């Protein structure tokens, strides 16, 4: 899902460079680490790590002061020069070192090694660190209403599990290093460790032969299942699952899904870059992709997390992000391309055009909801996901950049160029300009304008049909095209250069589609037609990433969440004791605590029906028996939804019984762009699980729950494809 574990690492290191250089003996031209040979003992009951790291440095190291980052809770006992020592090296000379204490308590320490000058000059140097300490940062729930980030932790060793990623700084490192690894891990009986690369015959021994930005180690009481699988390409890959005993029965489902996605993406991206792919269950909420494995929280494992946007996304990261690395200081292109290939293109690949269109719709919706005009930033400035606006720009908009590029240069050229990215940059870092170069060379023409427009410019096109009419064709006598439609199209703001479809509804009931090219702020398209047109639709299949007005979206909870004016209506009795509604109100309050008072959600109790509905979007908690506002607000839903004596009905279908619950949003035509949303449970227990996960269900107009599980969902009609009537002249 994310390369967050790597991104945090870089930000931490960057923040400590100045203090590290402030020591008496300056550090210059630091070499990089090319290999780590790690021996670890992990003691979960006491949160302890005992380790040695024999690391190889390349570059000019002789006579320099060397600076390494390491977690502040870890204590270096000694550092030895083992350049000429291949065995135990206990007698190897020790080097003086000091800790730079200028960093804060939560920042990595800088270990400065005072290496004596030798006659070796340039060349590789080997150092052995012996160190130990505590890694104990229990995971905390993410701070967002919708959980777009994993649970927050810098790393943890405990009875519930081990998670050691780069942000925990659990081994000595030098910024910018790309290294291979040899790792031996000792654990209590019954525990199994997983890391990158491939397990060796010796239990707890892993080899990582490909260069990586960082090493992640996890461990727990896993049930392991593996198979040697041969892809259609002929490549042999070890597939494995590391699941907790309660979920061990899901192993084959995840192994089969992994094989399916690998077979889909190997032809597009080239040979799989690793010898294995593993699905690993985590003890806290996560969706992380590391080289050769993905780390998924128990919650998602139980929900059969095998969809393209889920498991498929993590597998694409094997090439994009974990095979070819990101130049994060020059823009994160990795998540956009991964999202395009997994969340979106997989549906095209499988021939499911309806679902492909739905994904394009969802991407447009995400941008419309979370990126307000004036708040956009260029795709090239996206680094990592902090909130839903980042998600809309760095994942969804960036994904559609590749869709636009594919349409611009054509199918054959696009897929040929895409395959060249791993071919050229595997084990290396790439940036947007590198991608531009690859696609430009494949296309054989200048694409600077394209990347300047779609990647380096803030915002998206804002396109509208502002008028249309029909006239007699100016064609020659006998021409079958008897009429011409003149369609006036406006681009608000600086115009984009793009191609977009127009679809005409003809007098005889047929449709006629054509593609036009836009370059100007105001432009007329003259389209010959075989018969009189009645109406025209702009971009009916939603292929162009553009701004969609909020009042054109289907009503949904996310429109409420992002409205400038939000009100929660809840009966006082519902807040007097702990319960589902109390939890929702408290979470909203915690989320908005840092906002200025006028922009926070207003909490109100039900009022007399004669009083006006609050401004903006309204969230009503409770049904007609506990919140009088529910029945009144239901008027916005027309005939779509009705409350009944024992439950409710949606689109004429009845749902009754104490375990049923409903989340429904309806458009406020009296306030365009706002919605009324009602959360109703037939009984309070029906809402226990729904309330906890409420903001996961923000993209549908209605969701019906039975015992907290979704049994029906859908949308009322959106207005994203506007049909403009054509005047006859």
Outline the low-pLDDT stretches: 1-28
In CATH, the architecture of the largest domain is: Sandwich
Distance between the termini: 54 Å
Q: Would you give the CATH topology of the largest domain?
A: Immunoglobulin-like
Within the largest sheet, what's the order of strands? Answer: 4-7-2-1-11-14-13
Please report which band the strand proportion falls in: under 5%, 5-15%, 15-25%, 25-35%, 35-45% or over 45%.
Answer: 25-35%
Instruction: Report the CATH C-level class of the largest domain.
Output: Mainly Beta
Total DSSP helices: 15
Number of structural domains: 4
Radius of gyration: 29 Å
State the share of residues found in helices, binned by percent. Answer: 10-25%
For the biggest sheet, the summary is: 7 strands, mixed
Give the name of the CATH superfamily of the largest domain: tricorn interacting facor f3 domain
Shape: globular
Number of distinct beta strands? 40
Helical/strand content category: alpha+beta
Average pLDDT metric = 88
Which descriptors would you attach to this protein?
alpha+beta, Neutral Protease, domain 2, disordered N terminus, seven-stranded mixed beta sheet, Immunoglobulin-like, 15 helices, 729 residues, 32% strand
């Amino acid at each position: 899902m994310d390369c967050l574990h790597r991104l945090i690492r870089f930000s931490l290191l960057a923040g400590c460079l100045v203090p590290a250089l402030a020591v008496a003996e300056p550090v210059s031209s630091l070499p990089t680490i090319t290999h780590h040979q790690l021996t670890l003992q992990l003691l979960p009951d006491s949160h302890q790590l005992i380790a040695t790291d024999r690391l190889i440095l390349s570059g000019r190291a002789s006579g320099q002061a060397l600076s390494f980052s390491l977690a502040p809770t870890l204590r270096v006992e000694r550092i030895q020069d083992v350049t000429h020592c291949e065995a135990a090296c206990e007698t190897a000379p020790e080097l003086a070192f000091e800790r730079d204490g200028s960093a804060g308590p939560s920042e990595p320490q800088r270990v400065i090694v005072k290496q004596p000058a030798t006659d070796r000059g340039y060349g590789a140097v080997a150092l052995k660190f012996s160190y130990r300490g505590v890694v104990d940062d229990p995971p905390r729930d993410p701070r967002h209403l919708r959980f777009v980030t994993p649970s927050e932790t810098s790393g943890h060793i405990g009875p519930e599990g081990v998670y050691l990623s780069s942000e925990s700084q659990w081994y000595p490192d030098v910024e910018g290093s790309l290294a291979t690894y040899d790792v031996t891990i000792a654990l209590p009986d019954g525990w199994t460790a997983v890391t990158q690369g491939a397990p060796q015959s010796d239990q707890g021994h892993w080899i990582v032969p490909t260069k990586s930005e960082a090493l992640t180690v996890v461990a727990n009481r896993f049930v392991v299942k593996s198979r040697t699988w041969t892809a259609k390409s002929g490549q042999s890959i070890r597939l494995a699952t590391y699941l907790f005993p309660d979920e061990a029965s899901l192993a084959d489902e995840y192994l089969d899904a992994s094989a399916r996605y690998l077979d889909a993406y190997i032809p597009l991206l080239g040979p799989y870059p690793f010898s294995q792919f593993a699905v690993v269950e985590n003890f806290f909420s996560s969706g992380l992709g590391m080289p050769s494995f993905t780390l998924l929280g128990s919650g998602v494992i139980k929900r059969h997390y095998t969809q393209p946007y889920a498991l498929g996304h993590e597998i694409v990261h094997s090439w994009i992000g974990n095979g070819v690395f990101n130049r994060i200081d020059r823009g994160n292109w990795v998540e956009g391309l991964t999202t395009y290939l997994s969340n979106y293109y997989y549906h095209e690949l499988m021939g499911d055009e309806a679902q492909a269109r739905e994904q394009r719709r969802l991407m447009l919706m995400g941008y419309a909801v979370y990126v307000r005009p004036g708040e956009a930033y260029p795709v090239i400035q996206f680094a990592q996901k902090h909130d839903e606006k980042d998600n809309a720009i760095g994942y969804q908009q960036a994904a559609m950049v590749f869709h636009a590029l594919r349409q611009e240069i054509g199918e054959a050229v696009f897929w040929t160029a895409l395959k060249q990215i791993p071919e050229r940059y595997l084990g290396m870092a790439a940036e947007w300009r590198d991608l531009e170069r690859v696609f430009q060379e494949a296309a054989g023409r200048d694409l600077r304008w394209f990347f300047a427009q779609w990647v380096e410019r803030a915002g998206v096109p804002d396109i509208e049909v502002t008028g249309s009419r029909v006239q007699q064709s100016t064609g020659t006598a006998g021409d079958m095209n008897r009429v011409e439609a003149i369609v006036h199209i406006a681009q608000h703001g600086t115009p984009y250069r793009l191609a977009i479809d127009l679809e005409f509804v003809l007098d005889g009931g047929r449709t006629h589609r054509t593609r036009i090219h836009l370059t100007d702020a105001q432009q007329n398209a003259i389209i010959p037609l075989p018969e009189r047109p009645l109406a025209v639709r702009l971009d009916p299949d939603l292929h162009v990433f553009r701004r969609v007005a909020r009042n054109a979206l289907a009503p949904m909870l996310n429109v409420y969440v992002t409205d400038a004016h939000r009100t929660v209506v809840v009966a006082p009795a519902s807040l007097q004791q702990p319960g589902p509604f109390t939890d929702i109100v408290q979470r909203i309050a915690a989320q908005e605590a840092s906002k200025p008072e006028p922009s926070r959600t207003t909490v109100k109790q039900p009022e007399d029906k004669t009083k006006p509905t609050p401004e903006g979007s309204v969230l009503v908690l409770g049904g007609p028996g506990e919140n009088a506002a529910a029945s009144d607000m239901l008027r916005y839903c027309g005939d779509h939804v009705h409350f009944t004596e024992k439950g409710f009905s949606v689109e004429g279908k009845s749902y009754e019984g104490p375990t049923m619950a409903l989340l429904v949003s309806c458009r406020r035509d009296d306030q365009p762009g706002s919605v009324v949303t009602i959360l109703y449970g037939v009984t309070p227990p029906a809402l226990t699980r729904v309330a906890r996960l409420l903001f996961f269900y923000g993209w549908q107009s209605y969701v019906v729950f039975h015992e907290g599980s979704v049994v029906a969902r859908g949308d009322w009609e959106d207005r994203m494809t506007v049909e403009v009537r054509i005047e006859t002249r």
